[in-house]
Amino acid sequence: MKFPEDLSHVWDRKSSERGLPRFRIFRRSRTPETEEKEPSDRVETASGPHAGAPPSSETKVSPEHAGIPMGGLVASHDELRVDAGTTANLARAAQISPQTTAEIVPGRVLKRDELGRVHIKIVFYGPSLSGKTTALRWLFANVRSLSKGKIVEISDELGRTTFFDFVPVTASEKIVFDVFTVAGQRRHAASRIKVLRDCDGLIFMADSTPEQMNENLASIQELRIALGTDRMSTLPIIVALNKRDLPNALPVDYMVQMLDLEGYPVFATIATEGKNLTRMFQRVLKDALIFKVGI
Asked: How far is the CA of 202 from the CAs of 115, 123, 180, 210, 280, in angstroms?
């Protein structure tokens, strides 16, 4: 297994036997507990932090990965290249501020159009090429139960999103979901963080390949800084671990722990095939509706 030069890594005997890299994360080391669980294509670590409930701190680790050291050496702040001060300044420029009391109460702060319809904003967030636009395109083409407007894509010559992709999804005569994906490339941090403003529900889409773990770590770190602690703890966030069809995809529970996303609903997805995308999308729409409107 080959890793980029900027991804420092060390191996111990146990992790090398399983082919799993050890990545450093910026939190206290945890000792994983072994817990039996049935294998499944769809994995939900908990009910999640929707409707204001804080994420659970419980970690579930499959028995076959229980011996893997999860808090070892590796990616430093310099290697991740996410500057906390710069990111916080971009968030302030985008007018992402701490939540007000009114925002926390469902139904108090609603965005309505000229027809009186409530608009709820859903954002796909994650590193470049993790599958955000692919997932949005699949949902646009295959979810028949929702009325959809025209999909708008702003991309470069390679098909990578350069600002955002957008599609309005009408759930009823009174509710419209405005669904966005963001540009994952590092150089588009300013435009990406602008799209986060007024977000009502978020799908964090991570790349399951070991080579992209540093990018996953950088992206979730940036998201935490941009949203702030209060919004991270109350905003409905769904985790999609994409590219599960690849032979070197990291274990689901391993990725969840390394990204410090225990307690959030997690879906193992294959965006190119649409696997688990409908369930994932239904979950974020439901949680956002409860969070924003209270129904």
From this structure: 25, 5, 9, 23, 11
Which residues, other chains included, contact 250 with Cβ-Cβ below 8 Å and sequence gap of 6+?
20, 208, 209, 210, 213
Q: Where are the domains of the chain?
A: 32-292
The domain 32-292 is placed in CATH, from the list 2.60.200.40, 3.40.50.300, 1.20.1740.10, 3.40.50.800, at 3.40.50.300
Sign of the torsion angle spanned by Cα atoms 186, 187, 189, 192: negative
Write down the H helix ranges in 29-121: 77-80, 84-93, 101-104
Write the DSSP symbol of residue 146: S
Residue 227 has which token pair?
């949203």
> 44, 94 in Cβ contact below 8 A?
no
Look up the pTM and report it: 0.72
Reported in sequence order, the residue ranges of the chain that DSSP labels E, i.e. its strands, are 111-112, 118-125, 147-148, 152-155, 161-170, 175-182, 201-207, 237-242, 266-268
**pLDDT tens across 43-93, in order?**
554 444 444 444 443 334 344 443 334 433 334 334 556 889 999 999 999
